[in-house]
Specification:
Its main location: cytoplasm. It comes from Sulfurimonas autotrophica (strain ATCC BAA-671 / DSM 16294 / JCM 11897 / OK10). Belongs to the TRAFAC class TrmE-Era-EngA-EngB-Septin-like GTPase superfamily. Era GTPase family. By secondary structure, this protein is an alpha/beta fold. It has nine helices and nine strands. The longest helix has 18 residues. The protein is globular and about 55 Å long. The protein binds guanosine-5'-triphosphate and magnesium ion. Guanosine-5'-triphosphate binds next to helix 1.
Length: about 290
């Protein structure tokens, strides 16, 4: 008898959702950043654990909506919450339970959940015990609480065991050899975005996006052509940098991430284009894949 199901990773921006998904998969496919609001679209990772196929769904952090793009991001998270077999709610160990209470209100008992207390490597034992204690009063609401330190893979096996236990009996939903059902172009676009988040400060990462125009696969090398979209003409100089040094750094970093995943040499060509006000342009957002049906 096998088990299979969808497990949505839900939590505040920067809680560690994408990092946890990559770590459980053992491959980097989702972009991660020190800056909040990195993930914009749902993505998934297919993790086999004993007789269970766990399909993790990474989501944008639950946050206050502002721009239309943020509204899309919030809708993505809410959709993933309603449409899964189990929720893993990530709470950084330093967070108060206030955020968790908000999550309980939104979920309203609809989908059962496990709490993952993340980033426990950043606090003392004493603080960890205190944080665990602060969730005691909600014990009727969650299936389990698992403390996790992703860099040391602490808590990973416990988490996979308890998830598998909570999944429905089902045949496998994907080929067990598959890592994800995402398109390669979406994963690569995430890597370029991650490189922008790493190399460029202030608002530019939030006002830019990346489209993979084409991927040409040759025997020893993949050639990838991508466009970075920015909101304002004035951001062009920032993204490109003096003598092109910023865009070169972005390209090098993204190319290395691509090569690590593909195990193959890559050539990455980056173009920069200005699309005024794109984060508020409903039609354009739809065109580049941010379609929440509204
Ligand atoms: N020390 C430590 N850092 C962590 C851990 N988990 C995540 N991080 C770091 O926390 C930051 C945010 O991680 P992400 O995985 O991008 O967070 P997220 O929840 O996906 O954030 P959004 O996509 O913005 O919603 C990154 O700098 C990670 O390296 C952990 O267990 N320990
Ligand atoms: Mg993320």
């Amino acid at each position: 008898m096998t088990k299979a199901g969808f497990v949505s990773l839900i939590g505040r921006p920067n809680a560690g959702k994408s990092t946890l998904m990559n770590s459980l998969l053992g491959e980097k496919i989702a972009m991660v950043s020190q800056k909040a609001n990195a993930t914009r679209k749902r993505s998934n990772a297919i993790v086999m654990h004993e007789n269970a196929q766990i399909i993790f769904v990474d989501t944008p952090g639950l946050h206050e909506k502002e721009k239309m793009l943020n509204q899309f991001m919030l809708d993505e998270a809410l959709k993933a919450m309603g449409d899964c077999d189990l929720i893993v709610y990530l709470a950084p160990v330093t967070d108060s339970t206030e955020h968790y209470e908000k999550f309980l209100q939104i979920n309203n008992g609809r989908v059962k959940h496990i709490i993952v207390l993340s980033k426990i490597d950043q606090v003392s034992q004493e603080k960890l015990f205190k944080a665990i204690g602060s969730y005691n009063k909600y014990a009727d609401h969650f299936e389990a609480l698992i403390p996790v330190a992703i860099p040391r893979k602490v808590g990973h096996k416990d988490l996979l065991d308890i998830i598998a236990k909570n999944l429905p009996d089902s045949p496998y939903l994907y080929d067990p050899e598959d890592l994800t059902s995402e398109l390669v172009r979406d994963i690569y676009a995430g890597f370029v975005r991650e490189a922008i988040f790493e190399n460029i400060s202030d608002e530019v990462p939030y006002e830019s996006d990346v489209i993979i125009d084409s991927i040409e696969e040759e025997a020893g090398i993949d050639r990838i052509y991508a466009t970075i979209i920015i909101e304002k003409e004035s951001q062009k100089g920032i993204i490109i940098g003096k003598g092109g040094e910023a865009v070169k750094r972005i390209g090098k970093s993204a190319r290395e991430k691509i090569e690590r995943l593909s195990g193959k040499k890559a050539y990455l060509n980056l173009q920069v284009t200005v699309k005024k006000g794109w984060t508020k342009d409903k039609n354009f957002l739809k065109e580049i894949g941010y379609d929440n049906g509204k």
